[in-house]
Amino acid sequence: MAECGDYTPDRAAGLADLKRLASRTEVLRAKRDSVQIASIGTPVLGPDPDAQQLLDDETWQRQLVTTSKDAQSSAYAKSVTDAQADLDLRQARVGNYDATIRVRQDRLASIENLAKNKLVTSIELTRAQSELTESEDRKQQAVIDVESAKQRLAAAKQDVERDRIERKIEIEKSAADAERGLSTALKTTESDLEIFRSMVSSEDTADVEFEIVRPGPNGVIVEPATEETVLQPGDLIKVH
Prior knowledge:
By secondary structure, this protein is of the alpha+beta class. It is 71% helix and 8% strand. The protein is built from three helices and four strands. Helix 1 (9-33) runs parallel beside helix 2, helix 1 runs antiparallel to helix 3 (122-200) and helix 2 packs antiparallel against helix 3.
């Protein structure tokens, strides 16, 4: 009988690492796809008594990563709100200046008619002209301020969009890296059975029997297997 080692603490640690990697992958997939963990279904490692705790731990770890990013995103969003409020205020001022200019234009026209009949002094006419010019100058500055406020609002919105894209790229990359790592780990586990297949490939395999030594919640379980049996992380193989 050939035997592939024993269920050692090193293998137990390797299985624990694989479970954590699988849980991390599930959490990152959920974040990437904007779904709740509970809606994902059975984790890639199958039912496990520690699955929920592992998912909770990885969710908490992910939250630590995103906390500072959330604060930055909130700051960008507030900048947009503040810039919009500032623009609204400055646009309202332009409207106020328009109303003031119309009043002063009418007043100047009246004073000009009175001045023709020498019913007002030139000083009053000059004052009316100066007041109108002052209002027009203030409106022009207000229009310039509105354009500046529009630019600030556009820049703030660009910051929000850039932040959204950067966060999307980060979560997609993190999820892809985790998926590749998990796939590699699972393939490494599957390769154990391939090693035993190659060991007996040159012999008469009619009488060859496989058994899987599988750790479970209630202890180690020994199960019969074939060359097509899919291994689970932590499995050991016995060849008879």
